[in-house]
Amino acid sequence: MSHSVALETGVTMPLGASVQGDGVNFAVYAPQAHSLSLCLFDSSGHSEILTLPMRMNEGGVWTLRVSPLKAGALYGFRADGDYSPQKGLFFNPHKLLLDPYARDIYGEFTWSERHYGQMPVGTLSTVNNAIDMPKSRVRELALYKGTKPQHSWGKTVIYECHVKGATCRHPDIPKALQGKFLGLSHPRFIEHLRTLGITCLELLPIHAFISEQFLTAKGLQNYWGYNTLNFFIPHKDYLVDDDISEFQEMVAELHKADIEVILDVVYNHTAEAGTDGPLLSLRGLDNLGYYRTVADKPQYYINDTGCGNTLNIDSPRALQLVLDSLRYWVEVMGVDGFRFDLATILGRNPNGFNHAHAFMQAVNQDPVLNKVKLIAEPWDIGPGGYQLGAFPAPWREWNDKYRDTVRRFWKQEQGVIGELAKRLHGSFDLFEHNLRGPLNSINFITSHDGFTLADLVSYEQKHNEANGEQNRDGHSANHSFNCGVEGYTSDQAISKLRLQQQKNMLLTLLLSKGVPMLSLGSEMAHSQGGNNNAYCQNNRTSWLAWKESQFNHPLTRFIDDVLRLRKQFSIFQHPFFVHDGDPRYAVAWFTESGTDMQQDDWHQSDRQFLMYSLTDKHTKQALLIILNAGSLPITCQLPRLSSGQWSLALTSIHSVSTANVDTEQQIAAMSSWVFTADSEDLSHD
């Protein structure tokens, strides 16, 4: 790049770097800065070749247009002003800052004392951190042109997936693509997803992130990715050739296979951590605008995330940053929706959670965002942080009450069948009050956070020693059952029971009303050795082991069988709760003798058996589900049909048989069964 350039004031929108003719316009928000410089680097990213003063415009946006300049140029910002942590001000011109709106970066981030505003503590640092900072890179991609599947919620089956962990050990995927975005769109992995019946891939965080310094000091890495450096850039470790368009390519290939892509996004905090954290981007530009601080004590952050800082969505510019990022991933990168980590924060103002918060209203009226899938993790550690059921339409919510109830039932806890019945039919007690239905519940039994499905039936205690926190991290209340031995066993009877228990929970999940979500590896009994907080285990603890036996695993076949059955019954796509008098659907509950459940039956604390039917009067289909979590077999009388006979469709202990069955069935201990029938109606005693 020639050092002879023409400079113009530039325009305030869009924020970030945008190519305009033979030049590039730069715009950055820093309302309290005294001055702001654009720093241009050579192609190696090592030498700062030009430092150019930017110009303040109304509204606190600094701009500069530089020509000639083109895509690929490397840059950063330096903001000068007051450095006064007691006032919540962190301006330090010695620190190179990443553009919050950068679409690409070049180079690696390295932890060092150079990133800190005071070093030693109490002394303003005058050390240049540029050598340890990645550089913002001018890049513009065309709008996404692929055709999106647009599955209805009633037909959606989610697979929560880690980009690296899913394919980095897959022997049939080329080495260069393993653990990359393009590994997920490789035909072999797509074939696996389609075999399972997956319609939607939900990716753990893929926004550019870094590992926390306390992890790198222990030789560990942030594996999950909940430590965002920038909200627009795909994580570079997941790229093959350092080309962000590879993300677009992945999405397009998945869309061709009729699979949607949802991103797990972290708009609640950033990698700049607490007040004593590094100066990387937002803090050095407008700390008080981008982060929530304690009223009258701006030196202290509100830490509703447990990660040191909390993004201030009440600020118009912070809200704009989030909305601009979301639209970018939809319009340019092609994604189909988002799962919001600690989503309660996005709806919290100083008076607490507000379902009509400006963020909720902005998304609801946005012509791009109101058409995509929106999922909330409806809790955080802040005041009033648990808000399951409180989000407005059209939001969906992770339902941890579903998770815990199903776990407790199959763990053989007593007194849970009433709660279980609510969860199996969409949790009307949580969602119906604000005119939402069963499909607003994202049902899951395991996720990235906690035990895997295999570990849920193999461990009763967490085993997180490898995380370096003396096993203090991670949840202790897991509602798990080790089937008699903690961890690995060569006992065939225990191994058989563990497989059966996994099938029991999968059948329960996939035949519940709501939107089912499977976690990575559930289909092949993936184990993390009892680690229920593997966020820092970027190793074989977390990566799927694609052994020969995994390609035709019994759980993979079982999931496929259950989902095929689910698709045959329209009640699982029905967006409303089924109550007495419904013109089309009916739900009935039975005792083991085949009679209707009475009030006293529901209150039998030792009852660990549940039998219920789902009937579609229009199609004349009936589905009978039997769940026996008890330690003893039960002789069960199937409810009588007015015509036709029951056929066994699925069971967690036998291969499928379509033959007609006797009305009296022996239901094995800790087993689940599904029968189907074509019938006018059930005959009730």
TrEMBL record:
* Record-linked InterPro entries: GH (IPR017853), GH13_cat_dom (IPR006047), GlgX_Isoamylase_N_E_set (IPR044505), Glyco_hydro_13_N (IPR004193), Glyco_hydro_b (IPR013780), Glycogen_debranch_GlgX (IPR011837), Ig-like_fold (IPR013783), Ig_E-set (IPR014756)
Which stretches make up the Glycosyl hydrolase family 13 catalytic domain?
190-566
SUPFAM superfamilies associated with the record:
(Trans)glycosidases, E set domains, Glycosyl hydrolase domain
What Pfam families would the database entry show?
A: Alpha-amylase (PF00128), CBM_48 (PF02922)
Q: Which SMART domains match?
A: Aamy (SM00642)
- Gene3D superfamilies, alphabetically? Glycosidases, Golgi alpha-mannosidase II, Immunoglobulins
Keywords per UniProt:
Glycosidase, Hydrolase
The entry's family comment says:
Belongs to the glycosyl hydrolase 13 family.
Sorted alphabetically, which PANTHER family does this protein's record hold? GLYCOGEN DEBRANCHING ENZYME
Which protein is depicted?
Glycogen operon protein
Which organism was this protein described from?
Pseudoalteromonas lipolytica
Q: What is the lineage of its organism?
A: Bacteria, Pseudomonadati, Pseudomonadota, Gammaproteobacteria, Alteromonadales
